[in-house]
Description:
Chain B: One of its GO terms (molecular function) is ATP binding. Chain B: It is found in: Cell membrane. Chain B: It is a peripheral membrane protein. Chain B: This is ABC transporter ATP-binding protein. The complex is a heterodimer of chains A (263) and B (332). By secondary structure, chain A is mainly alpha-helical. Helices cover 74% and strands 0% of the residues of chain A. Chain A has one domain. With 332 residues, chain B is of the alpha/beta class. Chain B has 2 domains: 223 residues, 3-Layer(aba) Sandwich (Rossmann fold); 90 residues, Alpha-Beta Plaits (2-Layer Sandwich). In chain B, strands 6-7-8-3-9-10 form a 6-stranded mixed β-sheet, sandwiched between helices. A 4-stranded antiparallel β-sheet of chain B has the order 2-1-4-5. The interface between A and B is large, with 47 and 59 residues.
Amino acid sequence: MSDLATAGRLEPRRSPIxxxxxxxxxxxxxxxxxxxxxxxxxxxxxxxxxxAGIIIGFGFIIPNIDAATALYLSTGTPTVLLLTIGFVMVPxxxxxxxxxxxxxxxxxxxxxxxxxxxxDLTVWLIIGLPSVAVGVMVAQLRxxxxxxxxxxxxxxATLLATLMATAVGYAIAVSLPPLLxxxxxxxxxxxxxxxxxxxFRVEQLPDWFQTVHDVLPVRAAADLIRAGLASDVFEASLxxxxxxxxxxxxxxxxxxxxxxxxx
Amino acid sequence: MSDDVLRVxxxxxxxxxxxxxxxxxxxxxxxxxxxxxxxxGAGKTxxxxxxxxxxxxxxxxxxxxxxxxxxxxxxxxxxxxLQPQSQAPIDGLTPxxxxxxxxxxxxxxxxxxxxxxxxxxxxxxxxxxIDRRALPENRGLSGGIRRLTAxxxxxxxxxxxxxxxxxxxxxxxSRRRLLWQAVRARADAGSGVLLVTxxxxxxxxxxxxxxxxxxxxxxxxxxPARLRGATGTDLRLELQFxxxxxxxxxxxxxxxxxxxxxxxxxxxxxxxxxGTEEAAAAVTWAAALxxxxxxxxxxVGPVTLEDAYLSLTAVEDDTVPAPAGTEAAxxx
Lengths: 263, 332
């Protein structure tokens, strides 16, 4: 028999030990990373292939690609990769965990439930960051464009864009029934790839659609990351930063509510 | 002072027009193992979900370790360790790391969590697999080892209330015995254990008290001996009917020629509870039925908890009206 079990009779009314938030967070981080971590090499390969698909594939669609278009395409690709992780991989993972009982299991643990989201966001952030390097690398190989990196902007923009995409993806997965959430992710991929001014200029869209993109987080994320990668050509805007922050906060709020609520 | 680690009073929970729990009341005291029995859909998991704060009751109160679990679910969760019916999410982990992490989340130091993992692996005889990684699609570790790991994760640290939902699914017979010993040991050390199961035979051997849920309501409570029957000397006559049997209530077209205390039909089986004084008449009658081909077989033995459980939970259509000459109605 375990020493722990026989270490004396419990006092049922005695309050069990309150575990510190940092211990809980680190433990959950290890747990989450172990579950997703096995897929990490696969995710990097898929991201590299997706990057190649966008950069080389879009090159076929647009004949005689000029330097300005190539720069736009190259600096937009990392955003597509980050949004794909947040809008597709995260909701699919969360939907799966809701279906197989993992979501309920974790919520039944004696932990502050928002930490579950914090651990997930951290892990996906770690998984997402190589995407920027992968995207830039593929673009360099194809077009050999010259980048002028503004590191503070690039770091803030990448972190915020990844957090926003992950939080929104999480919110979608916890708000919709699993099947509907998975369908929504497919629609979002098309929206990000074809209907969002990430790899092409916003002026190519109708005016009303440009206005829609002013309040959606996609263009804001793309433009901020672009300003971080090619600061000589593109300028970061505070408005984009604000839009991203608001979407990030909304995604976190909806996700935390779903984690703590008891229907 | 009450030593209740779980007290549920009049809990009602509806899903639309379906009443999953209908005024359920129960208590689990420190040092006891309480079985929560019921068919699929009886409302067992709904009740457990409310105890751990996954669902909110529409009515009634739940106190865990003296804490109001409806008002303070996060605090109450620290007093309860749950092994749910679904497998624990341990893909990517070894049993050792999974048990250690569960221990850390329940307040054990790194060293104590490590010691607990070693000790539990020995106690449950899973040392051979303790460093083997669980992989997606149920690879790496078998369902039984995963289940035992989940059990170890639930009991890794002393907790006032332990809830085990079908903990022996997929587990081989020898390790089931170890698991039941471990459950008993935790209760003896002071925990209250709520064992959710539909395996009546196993529950009968381990629990101190039983609660039978049927269609969301408490159908009966008490010790296994009490639920088995008051006399303790009753017998069960089990008749196995052929598939084309026309009337299982009166197989020879006449009244059952002895006093029957309780009758339950389960599929093609009919279970009569009788007094010992009726044994000879019952065997003679059953043997004659078998000779005439009215029944495929029969058996006489001591009354089990299963008989009582089936009579409590049998759907109305399946319960044979007590034959003429009986002393008791079909339901106790």
